[in-house]
Amino acid sequence: MTAANIPRLARGCRLSEDPAQGWVLLIPEGVLRLSGPGPRILQRCDGSRSLADIVRELGAEFAEPDAARVESETAAFLDRLVARRIVVVE
Amino acid sequence: MQPQALIAEITHRCPLHCVYCSNPLAMRPRGDEMPAEVWTRIFREAAALGVLHLHLTGGEPLLRPDLEELVRAGRAANLYINLITSGIGLSERKLDALIAAGLDHLQLSFQDADEAPADEFAGARVHARKLALAKIAGARQIGFTLNAVVHRQNLDRLDNIVAMAERLGVDRLEIANVQYYGWAIENREKLMPTRRQLDVSVAAVRAHQERLKGRMRIDFVPPDYYARYPKACMGGWGRSLMVVDPAGFVLPCHAAGVIPELTFDNAQSRPLRWIWEESAAFQRFRGEDWMPEPCRSCDRRQEDFGGCRCQALLLTGNAGATDPVCSLAPDRKLVDAVIERANAAGEAGGWVYRIDPA
Q1: Which tens digits make up the pLDDT trace of A43-63?
Q2: N or C terminus of chain A: which is more exposed, having fewer CB within 10 Å?
Q3: In sequence order, what are the residues at sequence separation of 6 or more whose Cβ sits closer than 8 angstroms to the Cβ of residue B164?
Q4: Which residues, in sequence order, are bridge partners of residue B176?
Q5: What ipTM goes with this model?
Q6: Which residues of A touch B219 (CB under 8 A)?
Q7: Measured between CB atoms, which of A10, A16, A85 is closest to B78?
Q8: Taking CA B197 as the corner, what is the angle to CA B333 and CA B157, rounded to the nearest 5 degrees?
Q9: What is the Cα–Cα distance from B274 to B257, expressed in whole angstroms?
Q10: pLDDT digit string (tens) for B164-213?
Q11: How many CB atoms lie within 10 A of CB B301?
């Protein structure tokens, strides 16, 4: 995934906050339990923000000065989901 | 231990009469079906227990005029809503109403890629209608799985089934070999594939998976009579799934009603949490205490949980036996005899079709 790519959740996949179980990603075959910045990244995968936009927003939210690190970690996280067709890229 | 998914059989009625229908032979009549407000309470109780997925199934769930209300109720309980359907009774308008109510995913069943045999297996003229619907569903923003049931009479057309799924633009194709419960046991002679069919289809599925990587996911459910080890039926008894039948009886598995020693509690008179945690039916085969040898000391007991209790009952008469599909089971010879018959030339007679409940 490159900075200009616009990721969004694939159809049939939905982010949900369960009162007891926290943030979960509901997919047709089951559930992925999310921790760390995962929910914050996926909330922004709405088909309107590019990876660069998401990285900029996350950097501000988490007050993380190392933008390159945020970008590489976010891209790696999303690439894993793209491989499973949970996230698609425009 | 908390359940992940609730399988809600909201009716046993169905316009199809599939020769391998997995509903129990004794089905609940329409008069026993629970109203939407009771289902709504059950969905809330399930969510409070930790359930995240709701599978609305039947019978044919579309026969319930209040299906939209049920979808809305499930979604209001914060559940992921999957509709498992033949598609019969679904129009474009109805589908859009269900999506507006919160439907996340549609699983549409197909009996074949070719119309004549598809309609023969379904016992109804439905294939052309399903094709039309699949095109509509494929253009919507919901998850879309095509489920094709395969067996001796259609495994040779597996490539056509994959091609059909590609044309229809589904996200996921589930190719499921018939499992021998319910009506499928009645038609087992005609449905059981040959060893050669199985080998050819396994190789073909692998090739299609490789070719379609990144475009369409293909899941394959093998015919377990040919397996060396049993399937982890329902992910283990009372470990992750619960089934509620149209009348509110709660089962660890949709076929569990065949086990005569079990009695099932009803969600209309007992809290779902009590049924899950305490009821005798859920406790009976949970964990390892019930296990006989060779399961009890087997390295795989945490993987397959001793296999399927219903299959053990159906084949050996004892629900507490090791699943006879297992190559280590003392009763494996029962399964071998069925396979041997299937691979001997003869072709069985006519189909036994499912009769709908009143």
Answers
A1: 999 999 999 999 999 988 888
A2: C
A3: B110, B113, B146
A4: B149, B221
A5: 0.92
A6: 29
A7: A16
A8: 145
A9: 19
A10: 999 998 999 999 999 999 899 999 989 999 999 999 999 999 999 999 98
A11: 15
